[in-house]
Amino acid sequence: MATPSKMLSFFVGLLLLNAFCFANRDIPDDEFEGSRTLVLEHSFQSGLADQFTKRGTIVIHSLKESKAQFTASTSLSPSDIDLLRSSAQTDGLYRVRIPIKTSNDGIASYVSSATKACGIVESGLKDEITVNFDQSGEVLGVSIRADVSSCAGLDVPDTNLSQWRTAVEVTTTVAGPSPDTQTYIEKMKRDEQEKLKNQDGDNRSFLGKYWMYIVPVVIMMVIMSSADQQAQGGGGR
Ligand SMILES: *[C@@H]1O[C@H](CO)[C@@H](O)[C@H](O)[C@H]1NC(C)=O
Q1: Which of 13, 30, 130, 164 has the most CB atoms in a 10 Å sphere around its CB?
Q2: Could you say which DSSP state residue 164 is in?
Q3: pLDDT score recorded for residue 7
Q4: Could you give the CA distance from residue 74 to residue 69 in angstroms, rounded to a whole number?
Q5: What's the whole-model pTM score?
Q6: Which neighbouring-strand residues pair with 165?
Q7: Ligand 1 lined by 124 (C-beta under 6 Å)
Q8: Distance (Å, rounded) from C-alpha 166 to C-alpha 55?
Q9: For 125-168, how does the pLDDT look when each residue is reduced to its tens digit (9 = 90+)?
Q10: What percent of the chain has pLDDT over 70?
């Protein structure tokens, strides 16, 4: 048979559990971030006509954790390799760019970067691309770096120039402590709406809101008083 003290601790436990569950319910899940996909284009010619073609996609899995990954759309064709080699021989540039916005009249804007074509050749298409974001998740810039310290005039076979071995880095630029009135005003508006919503939604009575805390306490008191009476009754006989 359950003694009053055992039951008491049971109900206190229940009460704590209740409080814990309801306290946890409102924590927002701000860990979630949708993933984003950027298109990476490249050009082997540093001449006048920009001949950019799609190189692949960069998928950002998480800005906060800097998780990103490059997927090549195709391997380099023999004519791509020729262009890259001739650019390397003339100390030309290899360029990449990421379209970030298309205006209403169809003109795209880009962030771009360039590195020496000879570095791309001599690294065997091993490079590192860094994409820089601002705090609102907009792309601010891109930079590319080949994984070689300097060009040494190596003779690299074509087989080393077909598959990209690309590492993607993601950085976030934290804005300095400048007054951000726009965000502040938006936050004030949001807070106000939130307050209104709460007033509308939460017009239940005191009992309606807090019954889950009150009921265990009432039960506890009933049990304690009945245990008291039993003890007194026992003593009287
Ligand atoms: C070509 O690739 C092979 C295998 O990755 C590597 O061992 C070799 O050093 C590369 N050649 C050049 C010239 O980079």
Answers
A1: 164
A2: -
A3: 63
A4: 16
A5: 0.60
A6: 126
A7: yes
A8: 11
A9: 999 999 999 888 889 999 999 999 899 988 999 999 989 999 99
A10: 78
The length of the chain in residues reads 237
Q: Name the least confident of 95-104, 178-187, 207-216.
A: 178-187
Q: How many other CB atoms are there within 10 angstroms of residue 114's CB atom?
A: 16
Residue written as token pair 């990449």: 96
Token pair recorded at residue 25: 């319910």
Classify strands 126-133 and 165-172 as parallel, antiparallel or unpaired. parallel
Closest Cα to atom 8, ligand 1: which residue?
160
Side chain identity, residue 139: V
* Tokens, residue 88: 């390397």
Encode pLDDT of 171-189 as tens digits: 988 877 776 778 888 888 8
Output Rg (C-alpha) for the chain, integer angstroms: 33
d(CA 150, CA 172): 28
Q: How far is the CA of 126 from the centre of ligand 1 (A)?
A: 11
Q: Which is nearest to 62 in space by CA: 26, 28, 30, 100?
A: 30
Extents of the domains making up the chain = 30-172, 181-225
